[in-house]
Amino acid sequence: MINKPGWIKRIFSGVEDYHRTMTSPERYRRFRRTLTLVMIATFLIPLILTTMLSYYTYRSQMLNNLRWNAESATKTIEAFLSELQTVLAYTVNEHTYKELIDQDNLNKVYHRLKSHYPGVVDLGIIDHKGIQRAYAGPYELLGKDYSDRECFTGATASKIFIGIVEMGYRKVPHFAIAISFFNQDAGQNWVFRSSIDATTLDKYIDKIGAGPTSDIFLVSRKVKPLLQSTSQQYGPPLSPYPFELPHNSLGVTISEERGVWDYVVLKAVSYIEGTPWALVLLKHGYLYGKDWSFFKARLFFIVMISTVLALLVILQITKLFVGRIREADEKRESMMAEIEHTSKLASIGRLAAGIAHEINNPLAIISAKTGLIMDLLEFSEDFKYKKKIGSEINGTSNAVERCKVITHRLLGFARRMDVSLESIDINSLMREVLSFLDQEALYRGIHVDLDLGDSLPIIESDRGQLQQIFLNLVNNAIDAIGKDGKVIIKTRQRDQSSLQIDVMDNGKGISQDIISHIFEPFFTTKDSGEKKGTGLGLFITYGIIKKLGGHISVRSTVGVGTTFTVILPIKTNLSRRVHDVESKSTGS
Ligand SMILES: Nc1ncnc2c1ncn2[C@@H]1O[C@H](COP(=O)(O)OP(=O)(O)OP(=O)(O)O)[C@@H](O)[C@H]1O
Ligand SMILES: [Mg+2]
To answer: What is the rounded CA–CA span in Å between residue 132 and residue 190?
Structure first.
C-alpha cells in the first residue's frame, strides 16, 4: 500500500473509486479531466510565475532607467541655473549702485555677460518702486513699470527669484532672473533683473538627450501648467500641458498613462529646486525601444509555444494514460467474469459427472430388470394387464435409454481428459464434419455454405474433439433453423497465433434472458417434440474448447440468427492449458 499525501488522494478520489467499483465512462471522463487540469496547473503555474517575474524585472529596470534619466536631467538644469545665478549675483556685488545705473557701464557688463551666455537677452536695474531705471538690451524698456510683475515682487521678497517663461514686454518667450540688492545711496532695496531667452532651456535639454523614445521638457508649477521649453508632443513654450503635476515635490514621481491610441506612456516628473518649474520626461510605450517590444514579443512567443506544446502533450498523455487504465480495468473485469463462469461450469460439470457415474449402475440394473420383465411377459400366458404392463415397461425402457444417453455423454466428456495432438487442416476438418450432417441438412432444406480461408496454417489439436465441437454447433444451427435456411461456416486466420471459425445461421436466434445460460449443463429449450435435447451440447463444447486452449463466444439477434465464434490456438501448449483449466476449476 503506497502512502500518498491526503490532498492528492482527494483530487484523485474519482480514480481510486475506479479500482474498487465497476467501470463507467463518466468516471473515466472525470478522471481524465482532473488529471489534465492537474498536469496543466503543474506546468502553467511555474511558467506564469517565471513570465511575470521576467516581466516585472524588466519593467522595474526600465523604470529605474527613467528615474535615473529624470534625476540627472534635473541636476543638469539646476547646475546651469545655479551657475547663471552665481554669475549674476557676482556682477551685482562687484559693482556699485552708481556703476550699475551708468548706461555705458551697464552696456559693457551686458556685452561681457552675453559673450559668455548668449541666452541673456537684456539687463535692467529696477528701483524700489518697480520702475526700470537703467536698461541694456535690444528693446526700448527704460522707464517701464515692473511694480506688479512677479520678478519685482518675488526678488524683493526672497533676494533671488526665477520667473516662469512669459512673453512680457518683449513678445518673445523668456524668463527673468531677478536679484535684489541694497542701494546704499538711496537706502532702499533695488532689483537687478536679467531676461533669459527660453530657447536656452531647449538647447540645454537637447544636450541632455534622453534618447529617441523620450520627450523631455519643463512645465510651470501651476494648477494648469504651461510648457516652459519645447515638447515634441505638446508644442512650443507657453502651450498648455494637459496633465496635473504630482503633489509630491521631492524626488522623481513616476506614473503610467494611456497616451494616443491607447499606448502606454511612462511619465517621470521632478521639481527643479529654486525655480517655478518641473521637469517632465515622457517615455512612449510603443517606443519603449526595440528592446522592450522585442522582449515582449519574445516572451509572448515563448509562453504561447510552450503552452500549446504542453497542452498537446498533456492531452495526448492523459488520453493514453486513461485509455490504458480503462483497458486494463475492462480486461481485468472480463477475466474475472470468465474465471467465475469457467469455475462455475467446471464444478457443475464435476457434480454432474459424479451423479452420472453413481446412477449408471442402478440404470444398468433397471435396464436388465425391465428386459427380464419383458421376457417373462413374452412367455407368460395371457392375462388381463399383459398389454398395459408391456407398454408401461416400454416407457420405462425409453426413459432409461434417455438417462443412459445423458450419463454416456457426461461420462464420455469427463473421462476424455486426455488430448491426443496431431496436425490438422481446419478446412478439411470442416468438410468432414459437414459430410456427417449432409443428409440431415438436405432433408430439412438447409443449405450449408463453406467460406474457407486460403492457405490457413496447419494447427496442432485433437481431431476427435474438434469434430465434436463443430458437430454440436452445426447441429444446434440446424435445430434453430428447423426447415429451409442457411448455415455458413467461415474459417480465417485471426492473428499470428490463432484461427477463428464462425458458425452462422439464420435461425430463430437466442433471447437476451437465456443467452447467459446456454453453456450451462442441462440447459435446453428443446424439451418437447420427437428430438428432446439433453442441454449438454454447448456445455461439452465449451469444456473441450477451454481444454484445447481456445475460446468461444456467441452473438445473436432474435428472428435474425446466431453466430458462434470459436478461436483456436495454432500451437497448443497443452500442459499449461490443462493446468490452467484445472487450477481455475478448483477455484485457485
Ligand atoms: N444456433 C442456435 N440458435 C438458437 N438457439 C441455440 C443455438 N445453439 C444453442 N441454442 C440454444 O442453447 C440451448 C443449449 O444448447 P445445447 O447444445 O447445450 O443443448 P441442446 O441442443 O438443447 O441439447 P443437445 O445438445 O443435447 O441436443 C439450446 O437448447 C438452444 O435453446
Ligand atoms: Mg445441442
So the answer is: 10
Task: Report the pLDDT value the prediction gives residue 339, as an integer from 0 to 100.
Answer: 78
At 213, the pLDDT band (50, 70, 90 cuts) reads: low
Residue 249 belongs to domain with CATH number: 3.30.450.20
Residue 556, CA atoms < 13 Å, CB-side half-sphere: 23
Atom 7 of ligand 1: nearest residue by CA position? 476
Judge whether 276 lies within some domain. Answer: yes
**Exposure of 475 in the CB half-sphere (CA atoms within 13 A):** 18
Distance from C-alpha of 280 to C-alpha of 258, rounded to nearest angstrom: 16
- pLDDT level of residue 2 (50, 70, 90 thresholds): very low
Q: What is the CATH number of the domain that holds 581?
A: 3.30.565.10
Average pLDDT over residues 485-490: 96
Are 273 and 421 found together in one domain?
A: no
* Strands 446-452 vs 485-495: parallel, antiparallel or unpaired: parallel
Would you say the CB of residue 524 lies under 6 angstroms from ligand 1? yes
Residue 406 Cα to ligand 2 middle (Å): 12
Q: How many domains does the chain have?
A: 2
Answer yes or no: is 341 within a domain. no
Is residue 4 one of the residues assigned to a domain?
no
Which among 501, 545, 538 is positioned nearest to 516, based on CA atoms?
538
- Asked whether 476 lines ligand 1 (CB < 6 A), one says yes
Any atom of ligand 1 within 6 Å of the Cβ of 561: no
Whether ligand 1 lies within 6 angstroms of the CB of 510 is answered as yes
| Protein residue with least CA distance to atom 24, ligand 1 | 533
Give pLDDT, residue 490: 96
Domain end call among 225, 255, 287: 287
| In-domain check, residue 378 | no
Burial 253-283 (b: 16+ CB within 10 A, else e): bbeeeebeeeeebbbbbbbbeebbbbbbbbb
One domain for residues 278 and 424: no
DSSP string, 519-561: TSTT--S--SSSS---S-HHHHHHHHHHHTT-EEEEEEETTTE
What is the dihedral sign for C-alpha 390, 396, 401, 402? positive
Instruction: Note down the domain range covering 555.
Output: 416-588
| Rounded Cα–Cα distance for residues 394 and 377 (Å) | 12
Looking at residue 586, its pLDDT comes to: 36
Q: Out of 287, 312, 332, pick the residue that ends a domain.
A: 287
Which atom, in ligand 1's list, is nearest to the CA of 535? 19
**C-alpha of residue 538 to centroid of ligand 1, in Å:** 7
- Give the whole-number percent of the chain exceeding pLDDT 90: 31
Looking at residue 188, its pLDDT comes to: 86
78 and 222 assigned to the same domain: yes
